[in-house]
Amino acid sequence: MSGSESQSQSPFRPVRRVVTGHTAGGKSTVVSDTVQPPTFWSPESISPIYNLSHTSESPAVIDSEITQGKWVDEIAQNTEHVSKNGSVFRMFEFSPGTVSPAHRTVSLDYGIVVKGSMVLELDDGERITLNEGDTVVQRGTMHTWRNESTEWARICFVVLGAKPVEINGEKLGEEWRK
């Protein structure tokens, strides 16, 4: 299924991304106002992922339109899940019944459910239902996201690079399971 066919199944309107910046004279301005195209977990997935922002360092460089003469859209050049020394801003839509791959990233993730409900399942079997407006602070744990409802859900994350969790001398790195 192509991205446009998949996206047509989502009940949400397209994701508009507005990015602000500065003119050479120091005035605030909009440097980009676009509809962000989705990506997907896999070719057969109907649940879109929107990569909205990426920074490669912290503190972030936020004046490229002045220093380089044009706005540099780092997300267009970086689709990695975690920016080791920076940040990633991403939105996920989960169709009913969707289950993410079990995974761990070396990151600190701030999430908020903006529509619907999602079940966070940890590798010890614990399950937590997060409803609209609920937040999660994900700290490098192995987990799966599940939409067990009959409605679509939307969740947003800000992902910050972190030091790996170390247990008994073993560092827990990024891991993806099928």
Automatic annotation (TrEMBL):
Lineage: Eukaryota, Fungi, Dikarya, Basidiomycota, Agaricomycotina
Domain Cupin type-2: start-end pairs: 91-158
Superkingdom field: Eukaryota
Listed name of the protein: Cupin type-2 domain-containing protein
InterPro entries on file: Cupin_2, OryJ/VirC-like, RmlC-like_jellyroll, RmlC_Cupin_sf
Biased segments, Polar residues type: 1-11
Gene3D superfamilies referenced in this protein's UniProt entry, alphabetically: 2.20.70.150, Jelly Rolls
CDD domains xrefs: cupin_BLL6423-like
Source organism per UniProt: Mycena albidolilacea
A Pfam entry, by short name: Cupin_2
